[in-house]
Design goal:
Length: 553
Amino acid sequence: MLPLRLAAPPPSWERDVDVVVLGSGAAGLSAALAARPVRSVLVITKDELAAGSTAWAQGGLAGVLHPEDSLEDHVRDTLAAGAGLCDEAVVRQLVTEAPTSIRYLMRLGAAFDPAEGGADVALTREGGHSHDRIVHSGGDRSGAEVQRTLDESAIGAGVEVTSRAFALDLLIGTAPDGTRQVVGVAVALVGPTGEVLSVGHVTARAVVIACGGYGQVFASTSNPPAVTGDGLALAMRAGVPAADVEFVQFHPTVLWTGPDARGQQALVSEAVRGEGAILFDAAGRRVMAGAHPLEDLAPRDVVAAAITRRMADAVEGVDDHVFLDATHLGERFYTRFPSITEACRSIGIDPAHERIPVAPASHYACGGIRAGLDGATSLRGLYAAGEVSRTGVHGANRLASNSLTESIVTGTRVGRDLAWEVPDRVDPDPLPPLPTVPERLLDPDRLREVRAVMSRHVAVLRSAASLASAAGAVGSMARTLTDDVPPSVRAWEATNLLTVASAVIAAASVRTESRGCHRRSDFPDPDDRWRTSIDVHLDAVGSVQLSGLPDTA
Ligand SMILES: Cc1cc2nc3c(=O)[nH]c(=O)nc-3n(C[C@H](O)[C@H](O)[C@H](O)COP(=O)(O)OP(=O)(O)OC[C@H]3O[C@@H](n4cnc5c(N)ncnc54)[C@H](O)[C@@H]3O)c2cc1C
């Protein structure tokens, strides 16, 4: 059983605002900025403003800006990547609003790289896109520019930010009509090393969860350390359903820095293959030739699976990486991809003249809290935006560079709606006593085991046997949850990641097919009966429950 509330010291302070936003990435800041002209808005963020994935994004933002491109083609490419699980109406809405979201960022001051001649922005192509439609900045520093633009705009607009503030659990109230309603959030103020300074209650008329994904549940990931599934776990503890959590996109090419590399790894963006780079194995054979009609520009899941299979063959004894050859770009590589150049040089590789060692790593959570493109969830007063949410845009696999666009579009829509209308204020219910489910935490030193299990058994290729091993191991770890562990950021993150791991394993175990980025070696093909999303939630005693399964499951 998983905890239904994170153990924490009792609250010693209170704040009240109209809207509280959890997280300061593209989604959270877009929401805060859009709500701010009308509402008092407080952004709670657990580290510094730029600690989430947004600042790390390399490739850019997808949107139809070229006259030869079309909205219809962007819709088609997104649906194709999503492998039958996208919500077409939501995709259509996103694609229609994507060009505006990019122009909006430019109006806010984002400097995207200009096309030759300088009149328009440069557009590049990434895997799965049928046209050049990705805007980028500083070559491969696109996310940093988005983050900088939103940081400055939000602060300039008077959005209040509390950094080093960890969102623990939602506060729930009961509306006059008897409906459960989110009325705020319990927050811990923490010191620079994660020590707990105090806990307080922020009451609000609306809570927007924008805490990003859960890449850190795997041992090797492109995600920064802050991306620990806190938002998803917090929503699940409040009984809010998540969906599609088994669809974790593995980026085919993070920089391989050695057999013992753990945690965040430098990304070698898809845009490098967009510029013509080619994957080879250790024997110098092409990895993607014959694997897919788009070869090295095939969708990410196809490339990650092809690399994983080639690594399993241990060509020339090399079983943990392959090589990306971008030497045709010569020294242009340095200016087009400055961050990747820096990362390569840090391990002694010159990408203009040498092949880059690469391997797949967890990269993007396609699923998350069930929400509409307007952020509304099943719980009144609770909204979710960005990578933490599952809007139906990505289905079983995200099309490259659709996520930053989605974060801006969804965040802005949530904020705009909340500017016009917020739920009526409701007092929090007294916190229920939890004698049957004690507030227990995972010993943070055990997180290493959770991650190792996830990477060994629940990564690019899964099977009934690997998932059963993972379920056994994670179930045993849940039995070690104890009230002896003192509350700290590390313990809360470890406990949240255990909750997320349990949800991912449960959903991946029942989905007996391969679809999008969920690949089962024992069920290698898609099965039409599974053309449906699985909902996952925690029940009243902290057990993971699945719903929405087809009759045959
Ligand atoms: C290396 C890399 C490259 C990428 N490249 C691209 C790309 O080129 N194009 C693209 O579209 N997408 C890309 N992505 C994905 C994209 O960056 C993310 O999906 C997107 O930035 C998510 O934005 P977000 O606002 O939802 O979350 P994030 O930017 O991850 O922000 C989450 C925020 O929540 C805060 N937070 C988390 N937990 C708590 C808590 N308990 N309490 C308070 N605050 C909390 C974090 O500190 C952070 O501020 C990339 C991702 C990575 C990691």
